[in-house]
């Protein structure tokens, strides 16, 4: 099936996005342009109601990895269409809301580092995640229950609650640098698989609790 319109430029994209023509996104670059434009939610809804936006479904189904790093992206409404991706990187943007990510049930690796995220509850619906990077955001708590996580970075967040860690018994790598941690007892002893632990740039004085992690190979204090 031939597309109704081939997008050649950002201006061309916007022109046809608000027109009455049907628009087909042909490749990752076109999707990136839409994301970079920071189109407001009401326009997405309006476009959807008028059937202006469609994807090359075959392309989307074949693509498993997307990287939209350092693009000053604020909104990620289009992300919910990419239901088959397994790896998504959105590091170093201006993202604060991530509710659309909850629909990406096949995600295994997710990098949201370097954004403005405060609420991560949407990630609770991603049980297949094994790698999660949330460093350098605005988190004050981590309460997710993600049983298959192997890698987790929460560094550079002012965490007051890390209770979600107890629900990730498969964790092998845990990064908690500069998270205002003072008591190692907040790291659950159930993390039997832990091999790498970063607690640097914290005010920790008592480390006896570390004896629980018998497979620990790398420790930064």
From TrEMBL:
<dbReference type="GO" id="GO:0005737">
    <property type="term" value="C:cytoplasm"/>
</dbReference>
<protein>
    <submittedName>
        <fullName>Uncharacterized protein</fullName>
    </submittedName>
</protein>
<dbReference type="Pfam" id="PF12799">
    <property type="entry name" value="LRR_4"/>
</dbReference>
<dbReference type="InterPro" id="IPR025875">
    <property type="entry name" value="Leu-rich_rpt_4"/>
</dbReference>
<keyword id="KW-0433">Leucine-rich repeat</keyword>
<keyword id="KW-0677">Repeat</keyword>
<dbReference type="Pfam" id="PF13516">
    <property type="entry name" value="LRR_6"/>
</dbReference>
<dbReference type="InterPro" id="IPR001611">
    <property type="entry name" value="Leu-rich_rpt"/>
</dbReference>
<dbReference type="InterPro" id="IPR032675">
    <property type="entry name" value="LRR_dom_sf"/>
</dbReference>
<dbReference type="InterPro" id="IPR003591">
    <property type="entry name" value="Leu-rich_rpt_typical-subtyp"/>
</dbReference>
């Amino acid at each position: 099936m031939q597309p109704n319109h081939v997008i050649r430029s950002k201006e061309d994209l916007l022109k046809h996005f608000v027109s009455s023509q049907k628009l087909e996104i042909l490749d990752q670059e076109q999707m990136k342009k839409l994301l970079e434009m920071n189109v407001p939610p009401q326009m997405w809804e309006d476009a959807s109601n008028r059937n202006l936006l469609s994807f090359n479904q075959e392309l989307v189904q074949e693509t498993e990895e997307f990287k939209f790093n350092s693009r000053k992206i604020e909104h990620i409404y289009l992300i919910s269409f990419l239901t088959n991706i397994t790896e998504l990187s959105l590091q170093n943007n201006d993202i604060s809301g991530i509710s659309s990510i909850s629909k990406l049930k096949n995600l295994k690796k997710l990098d949201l580092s370097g954004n403005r995220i405060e609420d991560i509850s949407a990630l609770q619906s991603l049980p297949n995640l094994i790698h999660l990077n949330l460093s350098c955001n605005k988190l004050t708590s981590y309460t997710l229950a993600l049983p298959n996580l192997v890698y987790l970075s929460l560094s550079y967040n002012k965490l007051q609650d890390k209770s979600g860690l107890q629900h990730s018994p498969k964790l092998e790598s845990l990064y908690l640098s500069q998270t205002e941690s003072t008591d190692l007892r907040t790291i659950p002893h159930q993390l039997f698989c832990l091999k790498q632990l970063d607690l640097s740039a914290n005010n920790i004085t008592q480390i006896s609790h570390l004896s629980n992690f018998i497979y620990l190979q790398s420790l930064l204090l």
